Amino acid sequence: MTNDPSAHHTVPSSPDDGRLYDEQTESADGAAVDGNIHVGYWDSAADDRSLDQATDRLTDLVAGRLAAAPGRRLLDVGCGTGRPALRIARATGARVSGISVSEPDIDLARTRADASALADRVDFRYADACALPFESASFDGAWAIESMMHISDRAAALTEIARTLRPGSPLVITDVLLRSPVTGEAAETVCQTCRAFQSPSFPGPEELRTALGRAGLEVVEFNDIGEQVQRTYQAFADAFDGVAPSVDDPHYEFFNSTRSLPRFGALPQIGYVFLVARRP
Length: 280
Ligand code: SAH
Known about the structure:
The chain is of the alpha/beta class. It has helices spanning 16-30, 51-64, 83-92, 103-116, 154-164, 184-197, 205-214, 226-229, 231-239, 252-266, and strands spanning 73-77, 95-100, 122-126, 141-145, 170-178, 218-224, 270-278. The chain is built from ten helices and seven strands.
């Protein structure tokens, strides 16, 4: 559960990242969230949004921090199957480039873009966050929804993202946050979830702040919205309830983990970061 400082910068940080999302692409798309591969956000216990609506809500909160507008160019780091990018492009009129280390993600995202008539403003391509195929200072804003957790060398990815931002532009990051170190049974639960999500480790607050600082980015907002997203874990467990994989199923670890997600999400050490940084 530590970062690998020797992670290379030219190929995906973990060769497994793409594979996991090849699997999740299939699962998540057919299941409850239709293309959003991230948590939902509920204001309070009285908020009766569905999981699907709550995941769009998180996307909208991200969009609200991007100062997006027609003519502006945005980068989606770890775009999944493209639903957040398309939603933000549609709502704001901005141009969006999405990148991911999963070819099936990219194929699906392109299909979605074609079907949405937004293909002239939204493009998707296979690329690693640590080696972005874009010129320096080419974006007016960027976001990374639940992709940082998959990247070993987060400082390298953030430095690369910062390079592509124009001065003054925001970067919004949302991700599972390990509020404080875990030991004993809690550590086992966290490690199991890391393995299932193919995450080298969930980022901690200090690690993120240090990595952002090393990338030359200033933290503008740093919120822990763990309480507002926590309902997701039970909703996911419910959505995958009927699925009973055999132990030799290649998705066994992932499906198996969905059952224990509520236990993971209830750990006091598990939060969820919603942060805004800015390239000075
Ligand atoms: N942001 C999307 C998808 C989140 S899933 C959404 O909210 O729906 C995580 C995404 O990060 C996947 O698309 C995965 O391929 C991508 N990813 C993981 N490691 C990456 C890396 N090193 N560079 C770019 N994308 C990466």
